[in-house]
Amino acid sequence: MRASSVTLVVQKYGGTSVADLDRIRNVAARIKRHVTAGEKVAVVVSAMAGTTNQLVGWVHGLDAAGYDTAEYDQVVASGEQVTIGLLAIALQTIGVPARSFLGWQAGIRTDAAYSKARIVEIDPRPVLECLDSGKVAVVAGFQGIGPEGRVTTLGRGGSDTSAVALAAAIKAERCDIFTDVDGVYTTDPRIVARARKLERITYEEMLEMASVGAKVLETRSVALAMRHHVRVQVLSSFEDKPGTLVVDEDEVVESQIVSGIAYSRNEARITVLRVKDRPGVAAAIFGPLAEANINVDMIVQSVSRDGVYANQTFTVSKADLPRALAVLEKAKDEIGYESILADSDVVKISVIGVGMRSHAGIAHKMFATLAAKGINIQAISTSEIKVSVLIAEEYTELALRALHTAYGLDKD
After folding, report:
1. Which residues lie below 8 Å from residue 346, measured CB to CB, with a gap of 6+?
2. Residue 194 burial (CB < 10 Å; 0-12/13-18/19+)?
3. Cβ 384 vs Cβ 357: under 8 Å
4. 0.85 cut: is pTM over it?
């Protein structure tokens, strides 16, 4: 914290929170309440709901695959510019001094990975000077400026990352993420009626949940919060009720063995058939994918009985599937595979909890529960506090409900 008796807070509002003028007015009224209570508030906002999809659609309408990613960023970053100007005006009309900042004006500097840029540093001075002058700083999320002086974007969900990074840079007391849900639940309450909201969750658990499909917070934002010890609060934009705090493990008094069950429908399975089982074959497959910025998960290798050939199965995001297949086709001679199978009708289910470190049998319970429901497991991956499986998408709801009950997460 800076040496001040005034609480310094960063608030982030997603696209649904600023979807139209009435919602922007509601956001302005909420910000005013915090300012009236004596807080200094920096606000990070996304584009209005649907705007980014429209902008992306326009780019794809001109060039579906080979577009210049720097120009793509120039187009899609325009959505946030509209929102910050409208919110600043809405604040001014209710007597709250405010000033808008594009990412580069707020000192957000990134690398040159257009459309998937990472924040390198933030110069906090422009925002702090605005706050010290008694104004609300309204900052465009999702964007920054690259080393060549060009606009960059951080990828989908990047506004969460912008907000947490800004909170760390200005040493805010906390970062409040206002969204269309009122907190972090044990699983998706739209699928499992007995899901319950968590009062607190650790950074590690939230990071795992975000990385395997929970859409409450973006993965990089949680990693940043954990690294810089930024206390994050997930709240509803539409209701005044307590949310969920994402904090260090020592702030969670009592942890359950399993805290939540997440799922991701954004998965596609690729199987590279009959590659020579030799040193370097995995590098030949995954090297070109890495160079194309395609993230790979859940890698499984099966070796044939003769020990000569192997099959490599792994997952990528559905959005990356066409590019991944094109990369592998281009590298076919170097890899030496027979054929490739692809399946996008799959889902990844994950059970997560810091309590798993000290309890055995968590994976077995997952496997046994799915087996009892006749659900076949196609791939498995684990970490210290997570077990993930890949199953056919048609079993998503059945698997979530069965696992939620099996791990004792149903409401009392």
Report:
1. 267, 268, 269, 315, 378, 390, 391, 392, 393
2. middle
3. yes
4. no
Per-residue pLDDT for the chain (412 aa), expressed as one digit of tens each?
444 567 999 999 999 999 999 999 999 999 999 999 999 999 999 999 999 999 999 999 999 878 999 999 999 999 999 999 999 999 999 999 999 999 999 999 999 999 999 999 999 999 999 999 999 999 999 999 999 999 999 997 899 999 999 999 999 999 999 988 889 999 999 999 999 999 999 999 998 888 776 778 888 899 999 999 999 999 998 888 889 999 888 777 666 789 999 999 999 999 999 888 888 888 999 999 999 989 998 888 887 666 678 888 999 999 899 999 999 999 898 898 989 999 999 999 999 998 887 778 889 999 999 999 999 999 998 888 999 999 999 999 999 999 999 999 987 6
Residue 111: how many CB atoms within 10 A of its CB? 14
Token duo for residue 12: 């982030």
Q: Tell me how far apart the alpha carbons of residues 261 and 398 are, in angstroms, rounded to a whole number.
A: 13
Per-position b or e across 295-330, b if 16+ CB within 10 A of its CB: ebbbebeeeeeeeebbbbbbbbbeebbebbeebbee
- Could you give the CA distance from residue 101 to residue 99 in angstroms, rounded to a whole number? 7
